[in-house]
Amino acid sequence: MDKAITTGIMIIASVVASVALINAVLPAIGDSSGALSAANASAADRIRTDIEIIHVAADTSSGTEDQILVWVKNIGSQKINPVESSDIFLTTPSGVKRLSHGSSSGAEYWDYIVENGTDWTQAVTIKITLHLTDGSVTTGAYTVSVAAYNAVSATKDFSV
Question: Is 55 found in the same domain as 44?
Answer without folding.
Answer: no
